[in-house]
Write a structure and sequence with these properties.
The chain is an alpha+beta fold and 135 residues long. 23% of the residues lie in helices and 41% in strands.
Amino acid sequence: MDKYIYELTLKVRDYECDLQGIVNNSNYQHYLEHTRHEFLITAGVSFASLHEQSIDPVVARIGIAFKTPLKSGDEFVSKLYLRKEGIKYVFYQDIFRKSDGKVVVKATVETVCLVNGRLAQSELFDRIFTPYLTL
């Protein structure tokens, strides 16, 4: 059984590459964040609407292991699954090169919620994420 609950296919753009011709390391964080935001939309919530409700999910910690570089024009699949650990929601995110299925990046993103500017449990996230949680 596949542990992933969401996936998004993207393509590397020329300007995301460095002088070595590979994706600059900082761009992987953009790919990971874009995947999380698109996942939220499929779960019925937009990042902007959360802020309007004074609910701000923020990254508390991120760890990225770089395995295989992507190059301009490469298509890739960004996948995630989710666990709840105390007050945190932890996104386990992996990126795979589409042409050969090689692992590009393995990441763990710990997020917390600020509700009205204070660190708090989010009842909204608890309700929305329950069907997606991986044990």
